[in-house]
Structure formats: C-alpha cells, structure tokens
Design a protein that fits this description.
This protein is mostly beta strands and 331 residues long. It is built from no helices and 26 strands. It is globular. Keywords: Cytoplasm, Developmental protein, Nucleus, Repeat, Ubl conjugation pathway, WD repeat.
Length: 331
C-alpha cells in the first residue's frame, strides 16, 4: 500500500461506542477493510464497516447497520480469491449472514439451530471453514456446537441467494461451549472432533482448576498446535494434539486476564496475545518445549484490549480494539 513515503506504523479509528467484535476482510481488492461490532448492554447494537483511505491515510466508516444484541464474533467469508459473494457473518442470538455492497449491507439469512422454538440459546462464537467456505460452525451456551452448510445459490437475475442448513449437531460437552475452531487439517475441556467420525471425540486439555476455556485458536501453519486460555486467566496455554493434556508452553507475562489470541498467518512459531493489562504481546515459540520466558514485541494500548486479529492476507498488520478504538499496528 503506497502511503506516499509516509509509512505510518499505527492507524487509529474511533467508533461511537465500545468495540468488542472485530475482524479483517480477506478479499484481495479490499485490503484495509475491517468490520467492528458494538458492545452496548441493550438490544440495539451496531456493526460498522471501516476502510483505510489511501490518500488521507485515515479510517473512514463505509457503512453502519443495526444488529440485535452485541456481536460475539464477526468474520468475513474466507475467500482470498474474491470468487464468492462479499459476505460477512455475525453471531449473537443467531448466526446471521450479511451481503456487503458499496451502498448497503443486507441480511441474507438468519440461521437458528433450534427448530422447535423461536427462542434460541445465545451463540458464544463461530468459525468459517477456510478450506471449504460453505461450512460454518457455531458454539452455544446450550452445550452444543452446530456445523452449518451454506449455499450461495445460482445467480438469478443479479441476485445470489444465500441459504443455510444444519449439517450436524455436536453434543459432547456437558456445559456451555465458548468457542469453536476448524483446524486446517480438524473442530476443536479442548475437545476435538473429526468431521468424518463425529461420534468420537477426544479431550485434549482440561484446565487444572476446571475453569471454562474461553478461546481456542489453531496454529495457521502447523495443525498440531493450538492455543487456549481459561476464563479470567492470565496465561495462554499452547497444546500439541499429539501429546494430549500436557501443555507444551505457557505464555504468562500478562498481568491481567487475557482476552484474545491470534496466531501469525505466515509463521508457525509466532503468536500474539492481548489482555486487560493494555498489552499486546508477540511471542516466538520455536524453542518449545523449553520455557518461553518473554515476548519478542510488546505494545501498550490506552485501554484494556478486548480483541486482537492478525490479518491473514497482510501478515505485517495486527488489529486490536480497546474502549471505542480500533488500532492497526505494523509488526
């Protein structure tokens, strides 16, 4: 991105509300585009789509739309070639798929896994399968995970109809499920399912104090590794699925609870963690299983960092959000 010689290292956007959910677009023609979700403790919430203007090198809001309840997660379709419609998914009370155009964002479909009722158990998280963008998985406080099939139907006139159906419901946890992640190779207590043999699942890790695990995150380059963290925990645990139940590393320099984990998209040994101590830390874990003492980079934000996302198609940029601010950092 030619910034006309003034290559800034940090760009900042201030939203009109507290930002929680946030993610990078992966389309090649929309490089510095992100979606942000508000965190307002009431029914009426918002999602904003923002982009970096090359000329002014400022973020501008391209679109704002209403969203019921705060979004627990936002993801753009993992379509690096730009062959699918420009879709965005959000989780909250339901999983919603939105179509983005230059002028508006339109709800394409609302996916509810409880066919017996209009009421739903809130969704804690979801993941969009990178290998097959027609698959999404949701996790819920009702103890289940659901694998959804998405049809981006034939072009009728100029409209692609998008619809979805339940492919599988997984019930292997006995408490709320807080996160779900597809491995490039498999689904992520951490309990791992093979999508080909769903009746079998393996417990890879349980927190020693039996605290719920809030996030899990697969290494983007080496499918044997994943990172997880416990609710209110100050450390991030790195697991090797070949060695269940024993962490291969613990990253514990944070001084307050960790809120976000992001593996580098281009390297198997770098990971970023972000926490309530205002810090985003980048770690080099290649010396595992020797102890990882200190991060290789540290950034201090002006508030508690709620979320961190490493841009999959632009590996030198990391996005963080704190208070009502989004910042992207060149690493």
């Amino acid at each position: 991105m030619s910034m006309h010689g003034k290559r800034k290292e940090i760009y900042k956007y201030e939203a009109p509300w507290t930002v929680y959910a946030m993610n990078w677009s992966v389309r090649p023609d929309k490089r510095f585009r992100l979606a942000l979700g508000s965190f307002v403790e009431e029914y009426n919430n918002k999602v904003q789509l923002v982009g970096l203007e090359e000329e002014s090198s400022e973020f501008v809001c391209r679109n704002t739309f209403d969203h019921p309840y705060p979004t627990t997660k936002i993801m753009w379709i993992p379509d690096t070639k730009g062959v699918y419609p420009d879709l965005l998914a959000t989780s909250g009370d339901y999983l919603r798929i939105w179509r983005v155009s230059d002028t508006e964002t339109r709800l394409e479909c609302l996916l509810n896994n409880n066919k017996n009722s209009d009421f739903c158990a809130p969704l804690t998280s979801f993941d969009w399968n990178e290998v097959d963008p027609n698959l999404l998985g949701t996790s819920s406080i009702d103890t289940t995970c659901t694998i959804w099939g998405l049809e981006t139907g034939q072009v009728l006139g100029r409209v692609n109809l998008v619809s979805g159906h339940v492919k599988t419901q997984l019930i292997a946890h006995d408490k709320e499920v807080y996160d779900i992640a597809f491995s490039r190779a498999a689904d992520g207590s951490v309990r791992m399912f093979d999508l080909r043999h769903l009746e079998h699942s393996t417990i890879i890790y349980e927190d020693p104090q039996h605290h719920p695990l809030l996030r899990l995150c697969w290494n983007k380059q080496d499918p044997n590794y994943l990172a997880t963290m416990a609710m209110d925990g100050m450390e991030v645990v790195i697991l090797d699925v070949r060695v269940p139940c024993t962490p291969v590393a613990r990253l514990n320099n944070h001084r307050a609870c960790v809120n976000g984990i992001a593996w580098a998209p281009h390297s198997s040994c770098h990971i970023c963690t972000a926490a309530d101590d205002h810090q985003a830390l980048i770690w080099d874990i290649q010396q595992m299983p020797r102890a990882i003492e200190d991060p290789i980079l540290a950034y201090t934000a002006e508030g508690e960092i709620n979320n961190v996302q490493w841009a999959s198609t632009q590996p030198d940029w990391i996005a963080i959000c704190y208070n009502n601010c989004l910042e992207i950092l060149r690493v």
